[in-house]
Every structure is written in C-alpha cells, then in structure tokens.
Design a protein that fits this description.
The complex is a heterodimer of chains A (368) and B (389). Chain A has a single domain, classed as ABC transporter involved in vitamin B12 uptake, BtuC (Orthogonal Bundle). Helices cover 66% and strands 2% of the residues of chain A. Chain A is built from 16 helices and two strands. In chain A, helix 4 runs antiparallel to helix 5. Chain B has 389 residues and is mostly helical. Chain B has two domains: 274 residues, ABC transporter involved in vitamin B12 uptake, BtuC (Orthogonal Bundle); 89 residues, Winged helix-like DNA-binding domain superfamily/Winged helix DNA-binding domain (Arc Repressor Mutant, subunit A, Orthogonal Bundle). In chain B, 73% of the residues lie in helices and 3% in strands. Chain B is built from 17 helices and three strands. Chain B has a three-stranded antiparallel β-sheet with strand order 1-3-2. The chains are: A mainly alpha (368), B mainly alpha (389). At the A-B interface, helix 3, helix 5, helix 6, helix 11 and helix 13 of A face helix 3, helix 4, helix 5, helix 10 and helix 11 of B.
C-alpha cells in the first residue's frame, strides 16, 4: 500500500494515468461513434457539456459533484435531441443541424461565464486546454490512499464505459452494424444510441478538467479511426484504440515535458502521430499496402489460370475482367471502394442519417 | 441613447462595419457550404486555423494580421486536404475524417499556442483573443485587410456565380457541360476558408462555424432560389455581426463571438418558425386548416350519401350515425357547417336526439366534393358511405 501511495504521489504518474484513462474511456465509446458515422456528435457534445456545467454552477455554486454529471448528461443529450428534432423537421440537413445546435449552446455557456462567473476557476482558456498539469493538486481520500480527484473520477468513468461495452457488446455490435436486424430481434438500437451518447457526455465532463473540450474530441475520434485502419474486427478495434490512447498519454506527456507545452494538447497530437502511422503502414488499408497491391499486378489466383495467356490480351479490355489489372482487382474487398468513385462532391455519401450506418464496416468489420 | 453614442464612436463604428462585412462574406459563402452539405467543413476549417495563427505569429514575430491570416488560411487548406486524403484513400467516412482533422489540427494548435505563450514573452498578448473573438482587439488596419480580402472573395463569387451554382446543385450536370468541376470545388472550398479566416478575429476559431451555417440555414427557410438565399444570408450575417460588435463594445469583457452566434441562432429559430411556406408555424396552421376542411368535407359527403341511399335529398340523418361513419364525435363539425348555412338541425319524431339535413347549398357543395370520385347511383347497393373509414 505504501508503495502504491508513493507511486501515486508522483505528479507525473498521476498525469499520465489521467490521460490514459481519459483516452481509454473516450476511445471505447468513440469506436462505436466512428462506426455509426456519428463522430461529429462528439464534437457537438463536448462543446455543449459546458452549458450543463455552467448551469449547474450557477444553480448550486459548486464546480463538481454528482449534479454536474447529471447536468452534463442532460446538456449532451439535449444537443443530440435538438439535432434530431431539427433533422426530423426536414428543414435542415444533419450536418447543418449539428453546426447550428452546439455553437448556440456553447455560445450561451461562454456568455454566462463572461457575465456571471468571471471570478471563478472556469475561465474559457481552461475550457479549451484543460488543466491536467495541476490535476494532482486536488486530491481526495479513497480508503487508505490519497488520490487526485480527476484520477478517481476518470477511474470510475472508464470502468463504467468498459462495463457498458463488455456487458452490451452483442447489442452494441448489432445496433451499430445492422440496426434493422436489431429492431427485428427486439432490441432498441435508438435507446442504445442514446445510452452511448449519454455516457459520452458524462465522460466529457470527467475529461473536461483534464484535457478540455476540444482535445477530448481527439481522444474520442482519433484512436478508433487509427484502429479502424488496422483491423476488421470490432474487439480488436476497441483494444487497439485503447492501446493507442494509453501510448499517446505516455509519449505525449514526455513530449510536453521536453518542450514545455500544453500536456493535453501534446497527448492529443500524439494520437495523430499514431493515426499517421496507421495511415502509412496499416497492413491492409495503409497507403503503402494499397500502393504495393496496386503495383503488384498479380490477379487473384484461380481466375487467370484457366485462360491461356495471350487470349486475354487480345480480348477487348474490360470484357471479362471489367477493370484493367491492378486497378480494382488488387484493392481490398472493402465495400468502401464501391462508393461512387466520382470526384463528385468532396463529401462522400453517407452524410445522411437515414442510410444504414456502416455498410462498409458491416462487410469488413462486422464478422467475428 | 447609449446606442447612438456608441454609433458615434469611430472605433465602434468601424468594428461594427467590419463585423457586418464578415457576416456578409460568411453568409454568402456559407450558403454554398450548406447546400453542398459541407457545414461541418466550416467547423473543421475554423478549428484548424489555430496552428496557422500561431505559426503566422511565430514567423512574423508580431501580432500583425496579414501573416496570421495567411497562416490560418494555409493550415485550414491543409486540413481540408487532409480530410480529402482520409476520405478518398482510406475507409474512414467523412464524419470521422472531419473530426480527426479538426481535433488534431486544434491539438497541434494548442501545443503551439502554449509554446508561444511560454517562450515569446509579452509580444503574444492578445493571441488567445482568436479563440473567442474580441472586437476590442481589432485595429483599423486590420479592418482594411478584412475588407479587402472579403471584397475579393465576394468578387470571385460574383464572377464564377453560374459555375458555382451548377456545381452546388448538380455536379454531374456541371461536368457534362465541360466545367472543371474539381477545380471549381477547390476554389469554392478555398473561398469558404477565406470567409472563415477573416472572421476569426471577431468571432474566434471555436464559433466561426456558426456564422457560416446559421445565416445560410435561416435564409434557406425563406426562399427556394439561390440568388435570394445568398442575399438574405448575407443580410442575416451582417445583422448578426453588427449586433455582436455593438453588444461587445457596450458591455465590458463580453466576447464578441458568442453574441454574434446567439444573434445568428435567434435568426435561425425565428426563420424556422415563421418563414412562409417552410416555417413550422405556417406548416402547423396549414395542416390544422386542412384537417378541419377534411372533417367538414367528410361529414357533408356522408350526409349526401345517406340522402342518396334513402332516395331523399332531405333525409334527416341521426347524429349518432354520422359519428359512427366519421369515427368520432361530429358535433363541432356540424355546428361549423350550420354556421356556414350548409346543414340544418331538425327534429325527427318519434326518434330522439339530433338529426341533420343538408340545405340546398350544402347539397350542391357536397355534390361538388363527390364529383371527382364519380357519382354513385342511389341504388348502388352499398350499405353506406365511408365504411372503409
């Protein structure tokens, strides 16, 4: 026990642990957000959670406690519900609805701080950057141990998220990849979605002090996005995402100490480093792997064998093969490829809520 | 009184002018972002401006606006390219790509910002005004720059109007016309980035997305035509900008950005409610009126058919029977019809309860209603009208 306490008394350990817990808690939920094509909701939620915090502060005068969790969850879910209502009114599209709701809530929160809470430790810089560097100053007693308050909070939240994902693994998976089947089987994918976003709001509050509103988004989206480039299996995606989050916390802290910069920002930037690595070297979806596949013109075995060489050549291109060798063939079976190759619009399809989420994902990552 | 005094102040006036201009540019170009479903690209562009702002500051060594805005534009463009790379070359969807670019560029930006704050001494003061916008930090020379760049952006928009319109509504059609669609899309995205960048000082990187999306979304409710939408969005943007600048100038310490955003959001809410045709209140009123008219029509036709089935145009129908056909109480509908002189209440001894007959006017109106569905012979052998209901 003494050994653990000595360990916890080291600010570096506390900071790294908080960062790792924020990262794991966020990326566990973020995995499903990325697969459900709702990543930007995390951006919206992490902004509007501030309104919940400010409202609870103005009502109760305190900056932490259980009411904060409730206020944040309410604010987060209000964002989601308002966005849904706007989309359902069919007056604005989903992307615009998100872009309308959260700035309004966030602006209201910032103004409330400006007007009523100027003297409080709730200044707008902290909102953006977090105060993880001072997290170890604020401690609570847990049993025999003295633990940083943020650390204890994040431990509880991360455990709750892990329990949510483990206990509802099958339900989450089905609701993510095949909502129609989930409904047919009597599950409530919409309810599961709301539970996911409610937990995300709570996580955002917990992470708020540590890394700030916007860097939290990096922890939600980037590790799962990197993991998505590395694997087709859901559980591996969850594991890789968590591993990347933990590694980013350790490396990011070291970098922040070395260059004397924002710790939260450095940790979040490090997740980006992992994303770039996955983007370049991913075994199947990495750019290098893609380029190599394109370079190597070997057609899939069993197709070419029967055809005598030369006949193939003589035949008008695109009769039996459809695509010139090395263009479509080598590409991963990823259904994503099937998306209109059209240089059509900058935004690929799938902005729509209505489309079943993760068709591509379902083909690639849905099977275990 | 105070407002007049404020408007008399040269600084306030020029800041309000600058904010109006930013609103005009953001509203006009935001219309295209909205129509192309790229609203959240504005969010990514504005957050991604942060590293460029600090780098521009580091390179120039001072808080001069030109290098800062140039840096913001470059890092915004890089973020847009990054989004393009992620969506085209990997299986990440655009939501994830936008979120990744937004959070990573912002993270790098905070790292650079803290680096500057801890290493550059006092010269960096006011750099974090870019987070939420501070009208007080705007200098007259800044306004000239904002105005000049904004004017160039608007001029480009005017010159390429037809091309942009085609690209926004139907890229395939534009391509079939031989337009360089990809190049036009790049230019349009760049212009949106310009609109974001010149607003950064007033609105801030966090909330600039709202000035792109909100005026356009509000304007969209009022018109179906692109011309009208762009003009209206520009006007809404200008109003929001001026309101924000004045409020920020009159209340000490009030950040400009949030006020501008709330003003724009209020315009959106009002437009969603009261805009003719698309407004939700209009919609509710219209569907209420239609439901009412449908009720009257059904009761009139029921009465007519009962009369036809009994070969007696003046047949007195029992209200209970009408209720059954109608599937609910008809009392209020019948009273409304009586006020319009279409039905009359009669006693039908020895039965009790209300009975109703069509007046001649009611008969002709009911026949007119029935006509489109074909006249039924009185003895068609059907049991009664409206049984399907």
């Amino acid at each position: 026990m003494i050994g653990v306490q000595a360990w916890l008394d080291d600010p570096s350990v506390t900071i790294v642990l908080i960062g790792a817990l924020v990262g794991v808690a966020a990326s566990l939920l973020g995995t499903f957000l990325v697969l459900r094509r709702e990543s930007m909701l995390s951006d919206a939620i992490s902004h509007s959670v501030l309104l919940g915090i400010v409202a609870v502060y103005l009502l109760t005068g305190s900056l932490d406690g259980p009411l904060h969790v409730v206020g944040a969850a309410v604010a987060g879910l209000a964002t989601v519900v308002l966005t849904d209502l706007l989309v359902r009114s069919r007056r604005v599209k989903q992307d615009a609805a998100i872009g309308l709701v959260f700035p309004a809530l966030f602006a209201a929160a910032v103004l409330l701080i400006n007007v009523y809470a100027r003297e409080v430790h709730l200044d707008t810089d902290a909102v953006l950057l977090g105060e993880i560097a001072f997290a170890w100053l604020d401690v609570v007693r847990v049993g025999d141990l003295v633990v940083a308050r943020s650390l204890a909070t994040m431990l509880v939240i991360a455990a709750a998220n892990l329990a949510f994902v483990v206990l509802l693994y099958k339900e989450l998976k089905l609701a993510t990849f095949d909502p129609a089947l989930a409904i047919a089987l009597g599950l409530r994918p919409a309810l599961i979605g709301y539970a996911l976003l409610g937990l995300l709001s709570v996580t955002a509050v917990g992470a708020f002090d540590a890394v700030g509103a916007i860097l939290f988004v990096a922890f939600v989206i980037v590790p799962p996005a990197a993991a998505y480039l590395l694997t087709d299996r859901l559980w591996r995606m969850l594991a890789y995402g968590s591993a990347i989050a933990i590694a980013s916390s350790v490396i990011g802290y070291a970098l922040a100490r070395a260059f004397d910069v924002s710790i939260g920002g450095s940790m979040a930037s490090t997740t980006g480093g992992f994303l770039l690595l996955a983007l370049a070297f991913g075994p199947k979806y990495g750019l290098i792997a893609q380029a190599l596949r394109r370079r190597a013109p070997q057609p899939p075995p069993g197709v070419d064998r029967g055809a005598p060489p030369g006949v193939d050549r003589g035949a008008p291109p695109g009769v039996d093969r459809g695509a010139p060798p090395g263009v479509g063939r080598g590409a991963p079976p990823g259904v994503d490829r099937g998306a209109p190759p059209g240089v059509d619009r900058g935004a690929p399809p799938g902005v729509d809520r209505g489309a079943p989420p993760g068709l591509g994902a379902a083909a690639g990552g849905g099977r275990t | 009184m105070e407002l007049l005094a404020l408007l008399g102040d040269f600084t306030v006036r020029s800041v309000a002018l600058g904010a109006a201009l930013v609103g005009v540019v953001a509203g006009a170009l935001g219309s295209f972002a909205l129509l192309r479903r790229q609203s959240l690209l504005g969010d990514t562009l504005s957050h991604a401006a942060l590293p460029g702002i600090t780098l521009g500051f580091l390179v120039a060594g001072s808080r001069a606006l030109t290098p800062i805005l140039l840096g913001a534009l470059v890092s915004g463009a890089l973020a847009a390219l990054f989004v393009l790379l992620l969506t085209r070359a990997t299986r990440l969807k655009d939501d994830a790509a936008l979120g990744v670019a937004l959070s990573l560029f912002f993270a790098v930006g905070t790292v650079l910002l803290t680096y500057v704050q801890r290493h550059a001494g006092a010269a960096q003061a006011g750099l974090d005004a870019f987070l939420f916008g501070q009208a007080a930090a705007v200098l007259p020379t800044d306004l000239t720059l904002i105005g000049g760049v904004g004017a160039v952006a608007l001029l480009t928009l005017t010159l390429l109007w037809k091309e942009f319109k085609a690209v926004a509504f139907d890229p395939d059609f534009a391509r079939s016309l031989g337009l360089p669609v990809l190049a036009l899309e790049v230019v349009l995205t760049l212009l949106i980035a310009v609109a974001v960048v010149i607003g950064l000082q007033l609105v801030g990187v966090i909330l600039m997305v709202a000035l792109i999306v909100a005026p356009a979304a509000a304007a969209r409710q009022w018109t179906r035509r692109l011309e009208g939408m762009v003009w209206l969005a520009a006007a809404f943007g200008a109003v929001s900008g001026v309101v924000g600048a004045l409020a920020s100038a009159s209340v000490r310490g009030l950040a400009t950005g949030p006020v501008i955003v709330l003003a724009a959001s209020a315009l959106v809410a009002a437009s969603l409610l009261v805009a003719p045709e698309r407004g939700l209140l209009w919609h509710a009123a219209r569907s209420w009126g239609q439901r009412r008219a449908l009720g009257s029509h059904r009761v009139l036709v029921d009465l007519l058919r009962l009369g036809q089935d009994h070969r007696d145009p003046a047949y007195a129908s029992e209200q209970g029977m009408l209720d059954t056909y109608f599937g609910g109480p008809t009392g209020h509908v019948l009273r409304r019809l009586r006020r319009r002189g279409l039905v009359e209440r009669v006693e039908h001894m020895p039965e009790e309860g209300a009975h109703w007959v069509l007046t001649p006017a009611g008969q002709s109106q009911a026949r007119a209603l029935q006509a489109p569905f074909g006249d039924r012979e009185p003895s068609a052998g059907r049991e009664g009208p409206g049984e399907a209901a």
